[in-house]
From TrEMBL:
Pfam families for this protein: ABC_tran
Keywords for the protein's UniProt record, in alphabetical order: ATP-binding, Cell inner membrane, Cell membrane, Ion transport, Membrane, Nucleotide-binding, Translocase, Transport, Zinc, Zinc transport
Record-linked InterPro entries: AAA+_ATPase, ABC_transporter-like_ATP-bd, Metal_Ion_Import_ABC, P-loop_NTPase
GO MF annotation, one: ATP binding
Lineage: Bacteria, Pseudomonadati, Pseudomonadota, Gammaproteobacteria, Oceanospirillales
Domain of life: Bacteria
Protein's organism: Bermanella marisrubri
Name this protein carries in UniProt: Zinc ABC transporter, ATP-binding protein
One GO process term, biological-process aspect: zinc ion transport
Residues in ABC transporter domain copies: 3-218
Amino acid sequence: MLIQMRNLAFVRQGRTILENIDLTIKRGEIVTLIGPNGAGKSTLLKIALGLLAPSSGSRQAIANIRIGYMPQKLSLPETLPLTVKDFLKLAKSYEKSQLQHVVHRLKIDHLLKTPMQRLSGGELQRTLLARALLCKPELLVLDEPVQGLDVSGQSELYHLIHNLREELDCGVLMVSHDLHLVMANTDKVICLNGHVCCEGHPQTIQQDPSYLELFGRAMPAHLAPYTHHHDHTHDAHCSHGLNGNTEEKH
Ligand SMILES: Nc1ncnc2c1ncn2[C@@H]1O[C@H](COP(=O)(O)OP(=O)(O)OP(=O)(O)O)[C@@H](O)[C@H]1O
């Protein structure tokens, strides 16, 4: 076990954002959080990172756990002179040999002198991932790592994450909206909507009634859209009540 949350809740300004969360991540395991906007996915990642404290329940991690974090986005002033190399060197602590290894592994050697603002979407995601790897993480936390990439770029990055997990023998906790790609690239999926609606292996979870209510009927993996059905309401125990027949696509 790398990290474990038990009966965790997070409340802000009188509003319950997360409740009844039980989550364990082991070494070598990829766990993916899916859920509609505002479901609490980023909040849960911040609790995993230790940036936010739970309001109740517990979050335990192994002693001195090394966590590499890839944020959802990076906002840099257009005129800030910052090359990829400078950016990587801002990481808290790393060895020079590790920087060289990571840069080579993620195939960004040729970008080291490029200003951060000039990177393409795919190059930026690889650079952010490289920075997350500098601490030789035992746990990688990735907030929508493939956003902004085209389908082949998404597939390539998931494949890379898949391989890195084996090479580093680390755990991976990530958020994704790309349901069809998640299914092929994860060990465990957790459907979150303030609480855990359902969880399990990607193949089995597609049969779960809670999953089907949230994301619609199972389809061939390459055709599955990310569809969130809002024709029901949730309570803390994941029972559903019908309230109309509207549907949202995210
Ligand atoms: N510190 C805070 N204080 C008050 N409300 C907050 C705080 N942090 C998050 N929230 C609220 O909690 C809810 C969950 O936010 P969160 O960003 O975790 O959702 P998400 O699932 O990551 O959404 P998205 O898919 O849109 O990124 C949102 O309604 C947000 O406004």
